[in-house]
Design a protein that fits this description.
By secondary structure, this protein is of the alpha+beta class. It contains three helices and eight strands, in the order E-E-H-E-H-E-E-E-H-E-E. It starts with a strand and ends with a strand.
Length: 146
Amino acid sequence: MKVVLLKDEKKLGKKGDIVDVADGYAISALLPQKKVKIATPSILKQAKKEQEKRRQEELKQKEIFEKNAKKLSGNAITIAVNAEGEKVFGSVGASDIIDAVKVKFQIELDEKSVPNEHFKTLGEQEIEINFGFGVRTKMILKIVAK
């Protein structure tokens, strides 16, 4: 049976996708939980319009990500931390990197975009920023003592 998903479903697809499922599964599980609509011609037409609209929005978002990646590529951010000699008190995490990029480049990053690790040493390190949609760039993180 062809159905249109009304919600994201892990094993089936995203909201608005047109999928084939077993009749029994659709009738006993998906329809009663209002997770799908049966794919009539009018619903199919509407679903295809929504898919095209979503695709266009994703293309726009990817263009913005590519522009921001080009802006960050090879550039450096500097974060000052409390340190005594080589011993760092605390660490530099994702939120610190996000804040530094926002201040220096006026680019909003998602927490998922930056490395999910805590940097605990002074010096320079190369980090990868993953914007999504396959757009990635590398930049330099400089950690210095206050």
